[in-house]
Every structure is written in C-alpha cells, then in structure tokens.
Specification:
Layout lengths: L4 E7 L3 E7 L5 E8 L6 H16 L7 E8 L3 E2 L4 E2 L12 H8 L5 E5 H12 L8 E6 L3 E7 L2 E3 L29 H5 L1 H10 L12 H9 L3 H25 L3 E5 L7 H14 L3 H4 L2 E4 L6 H14 L7
Parallel strand pairs: 1-4, 4-7, 8-11, 11-12
Antiparallel strand pairs: 1-2, 2-3, 5-6, 8-9, 9-10
Helix pairs in contact: 1-2, 3-10, 5-6, 5-7, 6-7, 7-8
Family: Belongs to the ROK (NagC/XylR) family.
Protein name: ROK family protein
InterPro entries: ATPase_NBD (IPR043129), ROK (IPR000600), ROK_cs (IPR049874)
Length: about 325
C-alpha cells in the first residue's frame, strides 16, 4: 500500500488530466476528460470534478495527502484563482477553494503550467542536478518557469519565469497579451506557421499548415520554412539570454510541440544564443531538450504540492 501520494491535476484548454503520483514521481493511476473550453464556469468545474471522482474511486486514494494543480494561465497562487486565456468561462475562478472542498479539505497547491513543467524537469528531467534553470514550453503558447538556488521559484502569484511575454522586438506585432514583440508572438507554433504562410510557404497536398509541417519542410530544405524557424529561434535566444543575464542560469531546457522539430529549432537557437549571450557568465549556459514529455504537467503539479509540504527545495 502506497502512503503519501499526491493527486495531480494538469488543466489546459484541450484536456483536464489527473493522476495519483508517488514520492518518486511515478504515475500510479490516470484519469482524463476533455476541457469544455466554451462552457461556463460550472461546466468546466464539472469536468475537473469528474477527473477527481475517477481518482477518488481508486483504492489508492486513502494515501493521498495533498493535491497539486498546474493550470494554463494566468493563475494567481496567492488568491487560489485561475483565469486561463483559452478557457473564457473561468475568470478569477476560485479553483483552489473548489478543489479543496471536493477532496475533503486536503491541502491544495496551484501553479502555472510553465512552473509545473519546470518542477518536473528539475525533479526527474533535463534540469535535474542543476541549481539554476529556466525551463520552457514552446507550443501553442510559450511558457516557462525558474529554479533558483536549487528551489522552484514560483513567485507570489505562481507565474514567475513567464518568458513568453518578454518583449524581444520593441516595435513588433501586437501580442494578444497587450504588449508588442513578445517571444510568444514570434516563437509559438501557430506564429511559426503564420509567418511561413505569409512569406509564401505552401503546405503539401495534405493541406497540413501546422508548425510541425513547417518543420518537415525545413528539414527538406525549404528556405521559407527554414527562415521561419530561424526567426523563432532568434526570439527564443533573445529571451533566454535576457533571463540568463538577470538570473545567472546554468541551463535552459526547452520542451513542447515546437521543440519536437529537433535540430531545425535547436541548431539556429544555439547559433543565435551566441549573438545575444555576450557576457562571459551567460556564455556558459547549456541548452537542452526537455525529457519529461506529456507527463511533465502532472509530475510537476505533484512536485509543487510536495514542495508546499516541504518548502525547502524541489523533491529529490
């Protein structure tokens, strides 16, 4: 019988995933529901409750000592609320209070999804053993989180390390967040695809116009596709270099669907980083692909909950 399990929730615009996670970061049981993203607040909460009910039906449930939530943002850890951009029914929704009530008053910890992925990569993945790390998720959006002095650094609201909304192009396109020239506006998957299409790239006969299709075209030597990834890599490099200059980092870990492009992204990223990481202490920065894959959000939510119970450092 496992003791001291954590119930983890990973809440995004497409799915709400849940798991029971042990102290080693292993997922013992999973549950999932589609996110009713266009539904009202209670409809979305109903899907969360259904995932929790599936987990609570397990004979392992009595071993659960806390709940960890990683949610699409913005989140407010101090208030226990979430306002995911891609779930319009939730604005300032009191998720921590509602989940706590659903699980009989167990402690509940909330972080943004980028922070959750960072916790996972530091606990079990590519940032393990590094005291100062930036971990990024580059997919539909661009998120991130920080580990400083060996500790997950959430910030008071749970959004620290949100590198996607650092401006790297002062007069650049308006970002949906309201600022101009954000990393996300240049480097996210949809924006890589948008830029390639605008510059004259044409999808193949299957009509696939995603960033993955642009990556395949880049691998095949299409110059417009290559240029779109180089521009994304340049934006990422500028954001990473700025963050590393501020925080004196050892490693930047990059995951998410866009990172699946492999060297189409990482080769120009490493080249661009040499242009922006000019100071000696920034030049030593290591760039590495993420290792935790699609389970990162759940493992990281569990790590955040464990961290809430043992605040001194990330679970070892």
């Amino acid at each position: 019988m496992h003791t001291s399990l954590v119930a983890a929730l990973d809440i995004g615009g497409t799915k709400i995933a849940g798991a029971l996670v042990d102290g080693d970061g292993d997922l013992l049981l999973r549950a999932q529901r589609p996110t009713p993203a266009e539904g009202d607040a209670e409809t979305v909460m109903g899907a969360v409750s259904a995932v929790l009910d599936d987990l609570a039906a397990s004979p392992l449930w009595p071993g659960v000592v806390a709940v960890g939530i990683g949610s699409a943002g913005p989140v407010d850890r101090s208030a226990g609320t979430v306002s995911p951009v891609n779930v319009p029914g939730w604005r300032g929704f009191p998720l921590v209070e509602r989940v706590s009530r659903a699980v009989g008053g167990l402690p509940v910890d909330l972080v943004g999804d980028g922070v959750a992925v960072t916790a996972a990569e530091h606990w079990r993945g590519a940032a393990r053993g590094f005291g100062n790390a930036l971990c990024m998720v580059v997919s539909t959006g661009v998120g991130g989180g920080l580990v400083l002095d060996g500790r997950l650094h959430t910030g008071p609201t749970g959004n620290a390390g949100h590198i996607g909304h650092i401006s790297v192009d002062l007069d650049g396109d308006l970002c949906p967040c309201g600022a101009r020239g954000c990393v996300e506006r240049i480097a996210s998957g949809p924006n890589i695809a948008r830029r390639a299409l605008e510059q004259g790239w044409t999808p193949g006969r299957d009509g696939d116009a995603t960033a993955a299709a642009v990556a395949a075209a880049a691998r095949a030597g299409d110059p417009v596709a290559i240029a779109s990834f180089e521009r994304a890599a340049q934006a990422l490099a500028a954001g990473i270099a700025a963050t590393a200059t501020l925080a004196d980092l050892d490693i930047a870990v990059i995951g998410g669907g866009v990172a699946g492009a492999g060297e189409v992204l990482f080769d120009p990223l490493r080249r661009s980083l040499r242009d922006y990481a000019a100071l000696s202490f920034v030049r030593r920065l290591t760039i590495a692909p993420a290792r935790m894959g699609t389970d990162a959000g759940l493992v990281g939510a569990a790590a955040a909950a464990l961290l809430g119970r043992r605040p001194e450092r990330t679970p070892a």
